[in-house]
Design a protein that fits this description.
Blueprint (H helix, E strand, L loop, with lengths): L1 H21 L3 H20 L7 H18 L5 H15 L2 H10 L14 H18 L7 H17 L7 H18 L2 H14 L6 H17 L3 H17 L3 H18 L2 H17 L3 H17 L5 H16 L6 H10 L7 H10 L3 H13 L10 H14 L3 H11 L6 E4 L2 E5 H11 L3 H18 L2 H18 L4 H19 L2 H13 L1
Antiparallel strand pairs: 1-2
Helix pairs in contact: 1-2, 1-3, 2-3, 3-4, 3-5, 4-5, 5-6, 6-7, 7-8, 7-9, 8-9, 9-10, 9-11, 10-11, 11-12, 11-13, 12-13, 13-14, 13-15, 14-15, 16-17, 17-18, 17-19, 19-20, 19-21, 20-21, 21-22, 21-23, 22-23, 23-24, 23-25, 24-25
Length: 518
């Protein structure tokens, strides 16, 4: 009869959506799920008895929201919150968990630079509901262990920003990993290892994250989910850049790009593009880096990614710094500080712009919040990078108190490059050299600059090499031991020549006056 026909029509549309999603045709899937919901509404309006209509509608909303997120449609958030609300009303813990997980960006924080409290609350509610429903079997039933591990892992990555959440995100990530290991299921383990990269991210965990991403790569090669392969290469590119291996980072970034374009998900296409930026800029290819930056921003914006502005701002800052063009973006970064409320050290962008322009009083004013915190930068995913920027500012301002504090804090991480937003501010020994020079400990400063220059030469980082050579020469000229002036002149000549050839205006501006006066 009519009811059977209506039920079949809804079912066909839903199955067509499932098939389209499996074939990576996200936009087609959205259209089919919308059609199924429309057919369901029409049948309901016509008085057809299709059984559990509300249950059907809830399931279709979860499928639609998942497809919308994969298609880069910001409407996915409202769709899945609607589905979650219906699941709560029905007391359906399983559906609530599926709606919550579908709202997450596959192991990567939903919005870089922000804390989505509503999403965290939804995930926490789902975890509580699933655990309560399972009772004593929550740690023994494989299906419950799997869903709990995924919810815990998702909570951990959503808590990445905001220093007060650090211990909580590590604890829930540890719990998720323990469940995944006990379950011994590769799919669950992949799901947990991906967000764990961000949850435990700090300079002290580099060795652990190198091991985790190596394991993830091996798992991804045998996984039937290409998302795992994309995310494994995406994360490996980030961690190898941090470990000072930009050639490997670049190779993984290229593989991630190929997989992302094959998958067609806007979030992944954007993430792959901005991941390529860091190794290219480090290699001193300013023109190519500019093209990558524009392409990533365009792809991310067109693909509905709401946090494009965060990554774009970080990467453009470093590019404009190398080009000597920070004055062009001064107003923009002053406004940005107010938007990045969960990154209290963001005021350093403005302070560094003033330093570059020689406005040291205004730099001190902009840097005052960091000084007021006792130079205690939040222990979060951007700590090392922001500490490197702070060291640069402290040196420019001749802030000896700040230099002593930062030297103590940075010393344990002398083997690391700082990375955040897919870009690096460079190698820690260079910044240790700046801090030692601020404290007039010139022998120690010179040793650090020599170490940094050698590393920058080895990895092929010409702009950073030029900066290290200039700082090294400046320290030699201040020390004035026999042969120092001659060595300084050689270093400055090399730095100026390379900077002119490759367009590193920032290096030229530092080197030219010293060379003229040496």
């Amino acid at each position: 009869g009519e009811e059977a026909t209506a039920a079949r029509a809804v079912d066909y549309a839903a199955r067509a959506g499932d098939r389209a999603l499996a074939q990576l045709a996200q936009h087609e899937a959205v259209a089919y799920y919308r059609q199924a919901l429309t057919l369901l509404g029409t049948a309901e309006g016509g008085g057809a008895d299709l059984g559990d209509l509300e249950g059907w509608r809830m399931e279709l909303l979860i499928s639609l929201g998942d497809a919308q997120r994969r298609a880069g449609d910001p409407e996915h958030r409202a769709t899945l919150l609607d589905a979650a609300g219906r699941a709560r009303q029905r007391g359906d813990a399983d559906a609530l968990a599926r709606a919550a997980l579908a709202s997450c960006r596959s192991g990567y924080i939903s919005a870089a630079g922000t804390l989505d409290a509503e999403k965290v609350s939804l995930l926490e509610d789902a975890l509580e509901a699933v655990t309560e429903r399972a009772g004593p079997s929550a740690t023994t039933d494989p299906a419950v262990m799997d869903i709990r591990a995924r919810l815990l892992a998702s909570i951990s990555v959503e808590l990445v920003y905001g220093e007060i959440h650090r211990q909580r995100r590590i604890t829930v990530s540890d719990e998720a990993l323990a469940l995944a290991r006990a379950l011994d299921d590769p799919a669950t383990l992949c799901y947990v290892l991906i967000p764990r990269f961000f949850a435990i991210n700090s300079p002290a965990t580099l060795a652990q994250r190198l091991a985790d991403t190596a394991e993830l790569l091996a798992l991804a090669e045998t996984s039937d989910d290409p998302q795992n392969r994309f995310l494994a290469h995406f994360l490996r590119a980030r961690v190898t850049l941090e470990a000072g291996d930009p050639a490997t980072a670049a190779a993984h970034a290229e593989t991630a790009l190929a997989v992302a374009d094959e998958l067609g998900q806007p979030a992944f296409r954007w993430m792959a593009r901005w991941t390529r930026f860091g190794p290219v800029l480090l290699a001193g290819k300013l023109h190519e880096a500019e093209k990558i930056l524009c392409d990533a921003s365009a792809v991310g914006t067109a693909g509905g990614q709401t946090d494009v502005w965060v990554i774009d701002a970080i990467q453009r800052f470093v590019l404009r710094f190398e080009q000597g063009r920070l004055d062009e973006v001064e107003g923009e970064y002053a406004a940005l500080v107010d938007r990045l409320v969960v990154v209290p050290s963001a005021c350093q962008y403005v302070a560094l712009i003033h330093c570059e322009a020689g406005r040291l009083d205004r730099a001190r004013e902009a840097f005052a919040p960091v000084v007021a915190r006792g130079y205690d930068l939040p222990d979060d995913v951007v700590w090392l990078g922001m500490s490197h920027v702070a060291a640069e500012i402290v040196h420019r301002l001749d802030d000896r108190a700040g230099a002593a504090v930062l030297l103590d804090r940075l010393a344990p991480y002398a083997e690391l490059f700082s990375t955040f937003g897919g870009v690096t501010f460079g190698y820690t020994p260079y910044y240790l050299g700046l801090l030692e020079a601020t404290l007039d400990r010139l022998d120690a400063a010179i040793a650090h600059f020599a170490d940094a220059a050698q590393t920058y030469e080895r990895v092929g980082a010409p702009a950073h090499l030029g900066r290290a050579q200039v700082a090294w020469a400046k320290a030699l000229l201040a020390r004035r031991s026999p042969g120092d002036a001659e060595q300084a002149r050689t270093l400055l000549t090399e730095a100026v020549t390379a900077a002119r050839e490759q367009g590193f205006v920032s290096v030229q501006r530092r080197a030219a006056p010293l060379l003229a006066g040496s």
